[in-house]
């Protein structure tokens, strides 16, 4: 569960990479509050432009270079770990589909919501872990693969109008993420210095 939230955070950032794009007129721009149009536009860019498009300043999102990041859980928790991921990539974002849009009307200060489904999304790369799970010390380094299956993402936020160069843009505030995967699969290779029995059991526990 601890690691899953880190994956969610990186996944959400992948969608936010679209915010700097200069979108063209094809597909056509949507009118305020036109939910059907917005769904079609979002899915067009997810499925047709997930490899990026330099002509409109659109970044590649499948796979996503997640780089290096560290997740920590405090000493008062039964799972007390310091987990660093490096050279990681996230796959599967291009297969995501938006199925519900709410908001995006003329009043940007209202609540906005996007809902996505993604069949399979994986975080793959290198890891290093140190810490304790219950009473068992845990350590290891090697390859990692964390996969979420049939995940439902809900993104909610409140808009804040931003005036720039004579145009009005929307900043996000009170951003909230909810996720419901049918299952999450963990595979950290070389846990406990390669002890297969301990490593397999720990991957199941996580």
TrEMBL record:
Position of the signal peptide: 1-21
Domain of life: Eukaryota
GO cellular component, one term: extracellular space
Gene Ontology process terms (BP): circadian rhythm
Pfam families cross-referenced by the UniProt entry: JHBP
Keywords: Biological rhythms, Signal
Family: Belongs to the TO family.
Protein's recorded name: Protein takeout
